[in-house]
Amino acid sequence: MAVVIESVVWEPNKSVYILLFISCVFSIFCLPIKAVANALDHAPSASFLRFQRSFLLLYALSSVEEGLWGVFGEYELAYYGLNKEQMLSLLCGGYAVSLFIGSFLGILSDLVGHKKLCLLFYMLHLFVSLCKIFIGTPTIWVASICLSLASSIFSFGFETWMVVEHDKLGPRQDSLTDMFWLMTFFESASFIGSQFLANYLIDGNVNKNITSMWKEAVLLAVVAIIYVTRGWKEDPRTAAFKDYRISFIGHVINDKRIWLLSWAQACVHFSIAAFWILWAPTIVADGREVSLGLIYPCFLASKMLGSTVFPWLIHGPLVVRMEEYLLYAFTVMGIALSIVAYDYQEIGVLVTLFCLFHACMGVVLPSLARLRTMYVPNEVRGGMMSLSLVPANAALLFFLFLRGYYQFIGNSTIISFAALGLFSAAGCMYTLRKWGKQLHQSKHNL
């Protein structure tokens, strides 16, 4: 008599979703007393509240647009008949475009206006969606190039635009700090929403219903373009490239603090990209069966929870410098990835480590944005942010070549380098904290 061995598909416990949701709600509605008191004593103007709501709505819409293309990933490419090697070539091509073109879009944004670059983000998504609907397979490489450029714009364009528009309204810096963590929160929530939207549109049949997802992307892009062109105004830029270059060299190149911030941002970008490339192969190693679609929301919910911790660190009962808690956050993230890279782990342990990684990421992203506001002038913020991603994109392209084409390194090696980068980012925060204390002591002595 034959023996039938039933395979068990690993899924996270449903109580995890409930716990993360309740934790986020509790963290938001029980904000520190200092934050509530500041909000009551310095109530923002009606114009700022309209700006805040409008921008967060636009950013959420943009995040859904950006996240919609990453839901199915290689399943969509397999729909076109691409094999693993072709998918790898497509991925390398995307990072090459981000490296050689996307890295300079921030400078263009500072020169011509951030609104125009954000409109380009929607135009790229609209173009790709229409091409996939009406042309199909021949647009794969074009789509990869356009979406890579769109992702580059998404990484800096909306934040830079928000900071510039915020300063025009003149509210306090506390409100800008709140905008940063709210952007991280809304981005993660929108990515989860894009997964539900894509699955609803596909309805279990990718081959039959995939065009419905592209049509929805067209609709979102058109709505966003109309919303931006009619509802947002931006002063025309008149700065010449020569003046911009002088300002960039004076404020960015000659400031060592910005170099440290740029390196930390590059390490964060590399670790995030490496994670999203390798998390699924790591979890399903040795033929383990896992419901990846149910794990994905856990990561983003953890990131949402981490972003709600940010106001507690800024306005909480214990005053902690951003550089100090960032040092610990980067260290924890590096340790989490080091454990994954060093040793084989059970699925539950891996998911826990990855959730911890994303929870810390939710703290790190708004904190780095706040530090950029402290050190980087608005007129060169976009160029600084896009150029800081050059080392990360170059490293990703290099490791993909070594791993994919030459089989020279393993996935664990890439994760190890991501962990080393995070430890070096912690070193950058330690140096910034040290310099800040020295500056404070010198002013106190005077």
TrEMBL record:
<feature type="transmembrane region" description="Helical">
    <location>
        <begin position="16"/>
        <end position="36"/>
    </location>
</feature>
<feature type="transmembrane region" description="Helical">
    <location>
        <begin position="179"/>
        <end position="202"/>
    </location>
</feature>
<feature type="transmembrane region" description="Helical">
    <location>
        <begin position="117"/>
        <end position="135"/>
    </location>
</feature>
<feature type="transmembrane region" description="Helical">
    <location>
        <begin position="294"/>
        <end position="313"/>
    </location>
</feature>
<dbReference type="GO" id="GO:0015098">
    <property type="term" value="F:molybdate ion transmembrane transporter activity"/>
</dbReference>
<dbReference type="GO" id="GO:0016020">
    <property type="term" value="C:membrane"/>
</dbReference>
<dbReference type="InterPro" id="IPR036259">
    <property type="entry name" value="MFS_trans_sf"/>
</dbReference>
<dbReference type="InterPro" id="IPR008509">
    <property type="entry name" value="MOT2/MFSD5"/>
</dbReference>
<protein>
    <recommendedName>
        <fullName>Molybdate-anion transporter</fullName>
    </recommendedName>
</protein>
<keyword id="KW-0812">Transmembrane</keyword>
<feature type="transmembrane region" description="Helical">
    <location>
        <begin position="383"/>
        <end position="402"/>
    </location>
</feature>
<keyword id="KW-1133">Transmembrane helix</keyword>
<dbReference type="Pfam" id="PF05631">
    <property type="entry name" value="MFS_5"/>
</dbReference>
<keyword id="KW-0472">Membrane</keyword>
<feature type="transmembrane region" description="Helical">
    <location>
        <begin position="408"/>
        <end position="432"/>
    </location>
</feature>
<comment type="similarity">
    <text>Belongs to the major facilitator superfamily. Phosphate:H(+) symporter (TC 2.A.1.9) family.</text>
</comment>
<feature type="transmembrane region" description="Helical">
    <location>
        <begin position="258"/>
        <end position="279"/>
    </location>
</feature>
<feature type="transmembrane region" description="Helical">
    <location>
        <begin position="87"/>
        <end position="108"/>
    </location>
</feature>
<feature type="transmembrane region" description="Helical">
    <location>
        <begin position="141"/>
        <end position="158"/>
    </location>
</feature>
<feature type="transmembrane region" description="Helical">
    <location>
        <begin position="325"/>
        <end position="342"/>
    </location>
</feature>
<feature type="transmembrane region" description="Helical">
    <location>
        <begin position="348"/>
        <end position="371"/>
    </location>
</feature>
